Each structure stands twice: as structure tokens, then as C-alpha cells.
Amino acid sequence: MAGNILSISQPRFRVQPLSETDIQRIHEATLHVIEHVGVRFPSPRALELWQAHGAQVDLHTSTVRAPAALIEKALRSAPPTFTLAARDPQQDLPLDGDHVFVGTDGCGVEVLDLESGQRRRSCLQDVADIARTADALEEIGFHWVPVSAQDRPAHTRSLHELCAIWGNSSKHVQTESIVTAHEAHAAVRLAEMVAGGPLALRQRPILSIMQCTASPLAQDGGSLEAALVAAEAGLPVGFMTMASAGSTAPATPAGTLVVGNAEVISALALMQLAFPGAPVFYAAAQTAMDMRTGGYTGGGPEDFLFGAASNQLADFYHVPLSMGSFATGAKLPDWQAGVENSLSTFMACASMADMLLGVGLLHGSRIWSYEQMLLDCEIFAIIRRVLQGIRVDEDSLALETIAAVGPSSHYLAQKHTRQNMRSLWMNRFFDRRPYDTWEALRDGPPDFARAKARQILASHQPQGMDERLSAELGDFLSYLDAEEPA
Amino acid sequence: MSTDIFQAMAQSVIDGEKEEAARLARQAVTDGIDPLVAIDQGFVAGMRYVGEQYTLGEMFLPDLVLAAEAMKAAIAELEPEMARRGTARQVLGTVVIGTVEGDIHDIGKTLVGTLLSANGFKVYDLGVNVPLQTFLDKALEVNADIIGLSTLLTTTMINQRKFVQALEAAGVRSRFKVLVGGAPVTRSWAAEIGADGYSEDASGAVQAAIQLMQGG
Ligand code: B12
Fold this sequence. Notes:
A: alpha/beta; TIM Barrel; eight-stranded parallel barrel; 18 helices; B: alpha/beta; methyltransferase (chain A); Trimethylamine:corrinoid methyltransferase (chain A); transferase (chain A); MTTB_MeTrfase (chain A); methyltransferase activity (chain A)
């Protein structure tokens, strides 16, 4: 059984890099861009919807120019809060503006093998193992598809991945690996089987779906159509901008926010036009390109700022935010991973992003590391403690105890100490041992994390799925495998 | 006087000023300067400088891209004159490149194309989500030496293999060298599908393309 999910709630302080005037200016600039420059929606279904609602549509270039009033009105029908349901209702996640939940990262292509330490191509068993590990970790609230099941056929891979996660964890699943309407239909069908029918799924969406926008100022047709299928079934749908300052967005962070914002809110508006009231979320993972190589960085001071600024924008539009944090270019769980993942996650947490993506991937979201997964969870635990702040009240001021101890002496023998010591943070992975101990073993945090991951995999039993249901899912997958790829 | 104009040409590329580069190219034609000499002693000199500074980490990618655009604008102005004189610019090779069907990742492929053209290749960039047949049609049309396939998704990687098979089926496998790349693509995948070359990044892609042209 999974334990209670740890979240950040009621933080004692917040980080807000944008002023109210800044937000207003970004908002107005965004509406200007959507109305005058336009956003590409290369999907007949999307273009029809826009046309029906009075936007100006250039069918030749698939560019939509929508008036500000249309966007603003559409966004107003988005619910400000909703719940991501889990197979086990104890693990439901209220996206109510007062919780920060962490997910696993995705969708990597290689794995640092937990036994051999070797880097290798990812497969379905990895998806299952990672899901089971995540099920056991209290810091993890929900799953993304962590790595790609490359030993399954391309046209049904995303569906095998979903079922592998459901089979190994009772927590909420958010998929980011579905990019066609065809796959989305099948995913909805599978989710209905797990949830107990279409109505049950709508009431308790155990699955949500995340799509990427295609910076600058475009959407992907397949992703849009997949999102429409999901929204129709009542699944929460999010759009993530990955605008990159200098390459797919202006080299100024403010300009990058505008471009990304235009992509995300135009996509969310479309979902609302199609299905008013459908649960939608803002998603973002902006970055700045490496000016020397053009490479994807994912991790750097601009990213950290985007992490907090995006939440201010999502709050402004009254929708939950899913924020890319824990993003690193590091090749191993090392100093770089620690710096990048701590700072990005701190900024996103200190602005109360609703969902954080995610733990475990290295090398620009490409290589899965169990060590990094556990170390990332620890980073979250540390930040969670920091944001609990400093309680100042009679008990915490401890005047009586201070008087009892007096000058010199110590606090070790005080009842007050014993009563409060467990609210101090407990270390799991920092190396605080004597030097001699370290010198004899020469191991460190990644080794401690690896041992823990091995222990979880050897012992953790998730809340299983009904055998008949598993068999039904398996049958449906086999049927889909046999279909001609679309 | 000539050296002045060559210097100005180089400078226009270094500054990434494409209007200025085009203007100087037109002036060269008016002044009766041989286009090949204008390219070699003027524009290419600028490009070489930018390339060196980029390698040293002193200039950044946008400098390189702007320089390449300026160079392209100049050559476009010179092309009719070259045609009139019956001369042609020496290129290292002709490359058709694009991101395969089902995949919309753009930047990596664009970068590879840009660096190839900055290094003397003639590049046809077909964009993203490109059907395999379109690669083949274009390669036949422009008599390409190299076909570059980019893919960043595990689900579309398979299209690289399909493409190599399609070349074989069409009986034209030996006419083209196939270069592959993209985030999930590895050297071992390239070998597995029978591609001719692979690189993890854009500078490596240039080296790989040069090697392929030398028959390696
Ligand atoms: C930016 C990005 C996007 C942007 C692209 C914007 C644009 N205009 O191009 C957007 C947001 C649109 C996007 C969308 C998606 N993405 Co994406 N994306 C990335 C990201 C973070 C960086 C890619 C990038 O631009 N890198 C910078 C360039 C310079 O590097 P590069 O592309 O690798 O290219 C270099 C080399 O690979 C090589 N190279 C590239 N092509 C070629 C070709 C040849 C011939 C040669 C020799 C060399 C070569 O040289 C290049 C230059 O150095 C990667 C993660 C990563 N680190 O790669 C994920 C990533 C590739 N995406 C991924 C996914 C899953 C998606 C989506 C499916 C998500 C979704 N649900 O919507 C969609 C795909 C939609 C579709 N149908 O294609 C996964 C793919 C893995 C997988 N499991 O299949 C990755 C790995 C991230 C992840 N872990 O989830 N993405």
C-alpha cells in the first residue's frame, strides 16, 4: 500500500517575481499577439471550432487570429479547481491552489540500469518498475509516463505504458506520450474500464493528459485532436509551452513568457469553446537555449524565474499550473543536478505551482536514473520543510525551557526538546558521517539512494488491480496491437 | 578599391546584415567583378571568420545563423550572373534534410542544416513532419548526395529504418548516403538500421557529412 502523499500546503512565504503591472502587461501583450500575429492550429477540427466562434482563420496556413474578448470569455468557463482522482481514492490530488504535488518526469528514452549501472534503451518493464517505485514514495503524487516502452509497437506504445503504470500503482496517471486522436480514444476506453464506465471516469478522472504546444506560436495537430478527445471524456487536459529564449522565443524572458502564454491560453480557450467547463490546466517548461550550441538546457537562472512567473500567470487565469522543474542537463546525479533541480523546484514551490514535473530524468529529460528519482524526492522534502517556515508562538518561543536550562548547560535533557525534535528535518541522503567512514567506503548520496530504490523494488507491493480487469485491459491491448497502424 | 569591397562583403557577413550583403553583391555585378571571386574573397572570408569565432566560443549561434543568412542573400544576388557566365559555385555536396513524418521537432534539424550550409554544403530543408516519399522525391529532383533524417520521438524513429528500406526497394540505395540523428537516436541504432552516418550534434553532423562525401 502506498502511504500518504506529501504535498506543500499553507506555505509561510511566497516568491513572486512579477508585479501586478507586469502580469497585466504580459497578459495584454499576449492578447495582442493572439489577435494580430495569430497562432497555428493545424487541425481541421480545431480550425472549424475557431471559425464557428468567430475567430479569423487562415485555412491556408492554419493560423488563427482570435479577438481578445473571445479568448477572455472562453477562459472564464474553465474551472479554477478540480481533483485528479486516483485508483485509490486516498491518493486523490485536489488542485485547489493550496497544494503542490510532484510527479515523475517523462518520457525518457534510456535508463541507467539499477543493477548494472549501465545506460540502455528503455522498455515496458522499466515503466512498470519505475511506477512501482513511485507508488511507494510519499513525495510522489502522480505519474507521468517515465520512459518509453520501446519494446512495444509504436502505434500502441503509449497505451501499453498507461496500463503498466495502472498495474503497478494506485496513484493518478497523467500521460504525456499520446499525440493522436486514435490513441486518445483508446486511452479513454482503457481508463473507462479501470474507472468503471464513462460516467465514473468523468466523475473521477483517474487519467489526465498533457500536450505540448509547438513554439513559437503553434500547436501540433495530432496533439490538439488527442486533447479534444480527452476533454470530451471529462479528462483534465493541459498544454505545456517549452518556449526557449533565443531559439523558439525572443531572447528576453518577458518575450518568452508572452510567446508561451499565447500558445497555452489559446489552446486552453479552444478546449473551453469545444467543451465549456472542461477541467484544463496551464503547463510550462520554458528555458533559454545554450547560446553556444543551440542545445536544450533545461536548468539555469531563467528557468528558475519562469518557474515562479508561470504560476503567477496561471493564477491570473484561475487555472492550475503544471510546472517543469527538476530539469537538468547533468549526465549523472551530481552537483549540477543538485543545483538545477533544487533551485527550479524551490522557485516553483515557493509560488505554489499545483503540479511539478518531475523527478528522475537526467540529460535534458532523456535518461532515467533511480538515484536521481530518490534524490529529487529528497529535494522536495527539504523545500517542503523550508516553506513551512518558522512557527512563532508560546510553545515555539520556549521561554520556560530557556529559563530551565539557563546560561551554558544544554537542551538535550529537556522534555520540550523531545516533544519538538521530530519536527526538525531528518536527513536521508546527505553524507554526514565521520570522514574515516567515508574514506573506507568512498560512497555517497547516489549510492544511498540506489540502495533505497533497490530495497523498494524488492519489497513494495502496490494495491493490485482486479485480475479480471487486468485481463480485460490485456485483451484490449492485444486487439489494438493487431490493428493496422493509423 | 577591390580589396575595400571584399572587406565590406566579409564585414556584412560578420555583422549578419543581409540587406548590406545583397547590396554589395549587386554592386559587384555592376562593377564586373567575377561572382566566384566575390564569394571567395569577400563573403566566404567573413563566413570563415564567424565559423572560427563560433568554434572558439566567442560568437554565438545567432551570430552564425545571421551570417549564414547574409551569405545566402548575397549568393542569391550573384546566381543569375554566375549562370550568365556559365560558372557555378563549388559546393561540398548536396543535402536534403528534414524531420520525419509524425514528428514536429524543428530546432535540431534546422541547426544541422544551417551548419552544413555554413560549411559549404547546398542544403534543402524540407521542414518537419515530412513524409518519407517527399525525402526521396526531393533527393532525386536535386540529385542529392546525402539525405538527413531527424527524429526526436521513439515512435517515429522507426521511420528512419523504413526510409533505408524504401531506398532499397526503389533500387536507389547506393545513390544516396543516409545520415540520421535526433535525441533518442544512437550510433548503435544507426548501425542497426543500416544508415551511413550518425552524429549527436550539429558540428559532428558536418564532420560526418564531409566524411561521407570523401567516401568514408
Ligand atoms: C524542445 C522540445 C520540444 C518542442 C519542440 C519545439 C520546436 N520548435 O522544435 C515541442 C514542445 C514542440 C515538443 C513536442 C513534443 N515532444 Co519534445 N522535446 C523537446 C526537447 C526538450 C528539446 C529538443 C530540442 O529542441 N533540442 C535542441 C536541439 C538543438 O537538439 P536536438 O533536437 O537533439 O538536435 C541535435 C542532435 O540531436 C542532432 N540532430 C538532430 N537531428 C539530426 C539530424 C541529423 C541528420 C543529424 C546527423 C543530427 C541531428 O544535432 C542537433 C543539433 O546539435 C526534447 C528533450 C531533449 N533534451 O532532446 C524533448 C523530447 C524530444 N520530446 C519528447 C516528447 C515526448 C514530445 C511530445 C510527444 C510531447 C507531447 N505530448 O506533446 C511532443 C511531440 C509532438 C510531435 N508529434 O512531434 C520526448 C521524446 C522521447 C520519447 N519518449 O519519444 C523528449 C525526449 C522529452 C521527454 N523526455 O519527454 N518537444
